[in-house]
Amino acid sequence: MMLTVNGKDHDIEADPDTPLLWILRDVVEMVGTKYGCGIAQCGACTVHLDGQPIRSCSYRLGDINGEITTIEGLSSDQGLHAVQEAWINEQVTQCGYCQSGQIMSAVALLSAIPQPTDEDIDRAMSGNLCRCGTYPKIRAAIHSAAAKLARS
Amino acid sequence: MGRIATIARRTFLIGSAAVLGGVAFGYYMYRRPPENPLEDDLADGTVALTPYVLINANGITLITPRTDLGQGAYSLQAALIAEELDVDIHKVNVDPGPPSPAYYNTALSHEAVPFASTDDGIAARVARGLADATLKFIGLQITGGSTTASDSYEKLRIAGAVARETLKQAAVIHTGNSIPVDRMWTRDGHVMLSQSGGDGIPYESLAEIATTIEPVDQVDLKPKSEWRYLGKAMERIDIVAKSTGRQKYGIDLQIEGMVHATVRSNPRQGGSMRSFDAAKAEGMPDVRKIVPLENAVGVIANNTWAAFRATDAIEFDWGDAPFLHEQEDHWQALADSFTEESLDSRNRDDGNIDDALASGEIVEAEYRAPYLAHAPLEPVSAIVLVEEDRLEIWTGTQIPGFLVVKAAKLAGVSEENVTLHVQMVGGSFGHRLEDDYVMKTVELALAMKGTPVKMTYSREEDMRHDFPRQIAMARGQGAFLDGRINALDLSIAMPAVTISQIGRQGLNLPGPDPVIVAGAWDQPYGIENYRVTGYRADNLAPVSSWRSVGASTNSFFHESFLDELIHAAGADPLEERLRLLSHEPSRKVLEVVGEMADWGSDPGPNKGRGIAYALAFGTPVAEIVEVTKTQEGIRIDKVWVAAEIGTLLDPVNFENQVKGGIVWGLGHAMNCETTFSDGMVQQTNFHAYEAMRIYQCPQIEVRALENGSRVTGIGEPPVAAAAPALANAIFAATGKRIREMPFNKHVSFV
User: Fold this and answer.
1) Which range (B211-225, B258-272, B570-584, B706-720) has the least confidence?
2) How is the beta sheet containing A2-5 ordered, strand by strand?
3) Would an 8 Å CB–CB cutoff place A144 in contact with chain B?
4) Among B307, B389, B408, B705, fewest CB within 10 Å belongs to which?
């Protein structure tokens, strides 16, 4: 079946029961999207389906009907996404393994709520676990990305 | 700053010279510098000036042997070399290098001797020196014990300086001896030939000449005031890759021709496999091969998930757990081990505790802390390729030296024929001090010779086989007189953590296990009658080092019980700790954290503040937690932290490590336990093991103090004091004393 990832079509031959996460990682070989739990509890596998954040570990390939955006598709030739720039400026990451998912959730949050409060952030980001404890920096980076996006 | 003429040679020897009579010959032999492992494999025109700096015509590579688990170790190690070498860490290559005795960890031994880190007496120094020699013998290239900064601080700066001075000598030859070396200086990867500057000679152009001369062994280190990189906010070398999904971790690596795989072994850690039936799995889509292993079965498939699904379809007959099967029996085993026969150590026995407890008002309490999984977000994985008599391994590990030895033995090849490529790790917290996942992959690859096998544990397999943090129990008795603490007797029972852990590497530790009382006996309190006793409990689950190790349980016991005593005595928790502490850097962290939080001021209605102090891994740290009692439960509002680290090498990383340590310490104390039923771990995924999510994360304010004489680490110390500071804050807000982790068994958190 055809799968559109970051604007590019891929002809996928795999069991339609295979979760999108593993199609991305092991078949399309785009490994920026991470495996953490496989049961939609950690958020490391967050991607966008037509702009909405989903946990790719819990979506069957056969059920995907729309365009997928992964962390690799977030930046373009024009440069990094404002959220990624904020992540770099605030030096959010430690091990970094959860951060693809954190960033995808943050981008979706800012599309829905351009100027989020801390409570908005906590609500939108609570599905994304960070074992290193980067939460204070994540809050700061989302606020600074929001401010930057508002100026542009 | 004086000239330190011998120090460059000493770098690859031993930090402190302990001269002893009657010590084994081996001690002196092992003090010979190990050979530079980079010299074995050098292409023409490449020079390895020290084991840490490799230069050829294509560029400069800094070798950073401590694994980056997310703690920023690569950036810090690179910056230490770069500061002296005079290069920009963003313009050079950074490589973890090969496993080698040259990269042994001296600082780790300082935690392994029965002397407090505040003890600089001759006996303590001699013991540390002996432990250093032993470590060198077994080539412990370990990342752990918050030692990367302390171990690397001198070694890596000297390595950079040796390389720089040698390149200047090479430049003298390059210029036909026309310019004396003392006119030369360095800037950003170039040797400059005159004060006026000019372009200078790139280091790369000097590599060829440098191969022909002996590295210099007299160097000056830059004074702090001249540092360009250290002490300043640095951009981590991996920050862009980690913010764009481009960072490759071990689990992401793809090798040409690779197949995907997973392994299922007995969910009762260490138990046998009596039989299995893979009939259902064999016909499943994308499944290529079922491989029987020792007490496990591997599945090779077209993708990782197909392998996971196939292992779920295999029917197994597993053997019993080789340890107590039920959780309540684990607690009972601890309770039963406070006996003379199980006594492991009594490193502190000041005054006369029995007399002191015979009179006056006695406070008694029992504390518990459960097993805890490490559960880093990246499940463990490895890629192994077996070819004839060679083995190639790609994985993230904290123990590269051990791993090579064990893998060679398992595969029946010589250690020289094992190539290990250490990968970036998505968190560890001690998990990657184990190597079971790599050995399982070696077994699989032996059945798939010529094909690289990538083996990934499912989250469930990872947590079932995550040698957890020790379970522990403590009993305290104490007394006070005239509003002052005058007796504290703490007895701690737990499994022998070090012995369990190094036992899996075929090693043993004679005498007491230092972890059993770490973070308790070694606290520099001057309590008049003060005793700390460790008891070793047997037949418990195999355990491992978990971020802050012994202190993760013992600091909770010690600082909570001390707080109970202080409240019973009617004293102030900060003032009384200061009265009992004479160690100046420790007093200072308490005073500073008190100022940061405005200790003593009224926190407001339904609020409470708790304080805790710990000396862990040589770093004194003090923390204050403020909570609010709400209708829905306890809310953690704010945490203040002051830590004494000697010299602040990277302010951004310091802040991240401390905040991360607080989140780690609080989250697990609030919400996590690993328990066993029928010998199996019951919490196998994050729905049952949440630790802290962002909505529970407090504001955290941190401060680094630089009063101490030596550089110490910061990855683990903040964890130690977090749980007791929270328990003490909950007591202050509610009057309820929590003596058991996880705290959510006793209070709700919002």
Assistant:
1) B211-225
2) A8-11, A2-5, A67-69, A46-49, A52-55
3) no
4) B389
